[in-house]
Design a protein that fits this description.
96 residues, mainly alpha, 434 Repressor (Amino-terminal Domain), 55% helix, elongated
Length: 96
């Protein structure tokens, strides 16, 4: 028996939301109010770009690199501006 759609839906990793918010922040800093205009001007797929900004779906490394290239920033510069709450390291609790 097929699962209902609600059973297949998993909670979105909050880190994906942070990445999406950072992509949106960069677009707005570049002077674009619309993700559609930004994606068109930089030859990025409109739907893929929208999904990247939404932070609700996985994006490929290739898509992320294309977005970073459009902004002229490095991977380091992109991630330095993301303030993620510190998480407990699950390996630190292992004994052995």
């Amino acid at each position: 028996m097929a699962k209902k759609k609600s059973e297949d839906t998993k909670e979105v990793d909050p880190r994906m939301k942070l990445i999406g918010a950072r992509i949106t922040e960069l677009r707005k800093k570049a002077g674009y109010s619309s993700g559609e205009n930004f994606s068109t001007d930089h030859s990025l797929g409109r739907m893929a770009y929208w999904r990247a900004e939404s932070g609700t779906t996985n994006i490929t490394m290739k898509s992320l690199f294309a977005i970073l290239d459009a902004h002229g920033i490095t991977i380091r510069e992109f991630f330095l501006e993301i303030n993620e709450p510190k998480r407990e390291n699950p390996l630190s609790n292992k004994k052995g």
